[in-house]
Specification:
By secondary structure, this protein is of the alpha+beta class. The chain folds into 2 domains: 280 residues, DD-peptidase/beta-lactamase superfamily (Beta-lactamase, 3-Layer(aba) Sandwich), CATH 3.40.710.10; 80 residues, Beta Barrel (Lipocalin). The chain is 28% helix and 23% strand. β16 and β17 form a beta hairpin. α1 packs antiparallel against α10, α2 crosses α6 and α2 packs across α7. The longest helix has 31 residues. The radius of gyration is 25 Å and the shape is globular. The protein starts with a helix and ends with a strand.
Amino acid sequence: MRFGRLSLILFLSLFLSGAVAQRGDFRAVDELFADFERRDDTYPLGRPGCALAIVRDGEIVYSKGYGMADLEHDIPITPQSVFYAGSVSKQFVATGILLLQEQGKLDIDDEVRRYVPELPDYGHTITIRHMLHHISGLRDYLSLWDLSGKDMLDYIPDEAVLDLITRQRELNFRPGERYSYSNSGYYLLMLITERLSGQSFKDFTRQHILDPLSMNDSHFHDDLYHVVPNRAWGYRLTDDERVENLLMRFDLVGSGGLYTTVEDLYKWDRNFYNNKLGKKKQALIDTLQSEGRLNSGESAGYAFAMVNDEYRGLRTVSHTGSMGGYRAYYLRLPGQRLSVILLGNFANFKPVPYAQRIVDILLQEELADIPATTRTAVGIPLFQQIFTENELEKAPGRYYSPELDTRATIHREGDELFLRIGYQLPISLKEWINHATGRGIDFRKKEGEIDHFLLHSGVIKNIRFERVE
């Protein structure tokens, strides 16, 4: 009996010392998010924050919520809080397509127009594989929607998205020529899934992915009126540190749409090591992690909604997500069987460096002798746009873009031209061009008169605006 008591005391001693050591490690993690817990004169209601789950060897070793899920009702964030996951959702879309391929309903090398005949014939074959790896050349519908002067956080009907995508008269580039992130491709992948399965994407993923993995607190949000228990609401912080609501009526799925928790994403993470989906073969997982190839044979740098990379000498698989006031990051280090899952509810949150810092803390003895990632701010060069006197006189007027189904006006103030698209505020064309790289405008003439202009924004080129009376 005495031996038993000594054994128990020894066991408890070892257990508690290990727990203290673990708590010491995670105390350093907690310190990273200390500012999220503020409640002071600046943040009298608290401030938005994030939920965290750290997974090691198939188990959650630490999870916690930092900050507030609902400032108006004084509800803190917990590991059970439900967040919008943004483009992390795309992994589930890609998985759904591969499950349909397992079922013999499609081949990812099939031409997209076989399933979406509404898509124009651009003279080049676009395949499902092209869209999975963002090498299709399709213009990004969210960028187009924003460019047309509409608010991405407002309600967008599915019909409007398909109409916008199919209105485009040209591609950004020949399919397979290069990589360019396109939400249009993943929206069409969702549409193909619905058409082949005969189910809504929400129901398809529930049956074939979420239920088999017991992701009971997750769903694809295709109905803005759907009540979401434990939802963390989205916010943003202003330059003077005020908190503002960032309400979102966006309920499109495919490009995003997953509402989930860090604990449910842990179940998704666990499946990469022991697949329970479809035919339950590991080949599905291997395919998901394989990178696409360009026409040149080079890697596209993007797998099936996953990015293979490395951090300080260690292999990583990851994806970010963002929309409105939500930010997400799912980071997996397969060699260490370590994953960091972060879901945040304010637009200013940058989860990637936080996840990397957690890796620094937990794997400090395994990391290569490379400094933790730092970024140096690089200024965007300013371009001196000088308009000719003819352009200053002839460009003002009203225009219409059939591809965006939106109107625009140009007016002159002194030696500057101002552009207004849709209901947006007018912006100086000099400011437009200097706002970010890749923006530009070309005025085109017919019989000496400016007949139309071509607008460029990032990877989107040659959006035509025709003069109207």
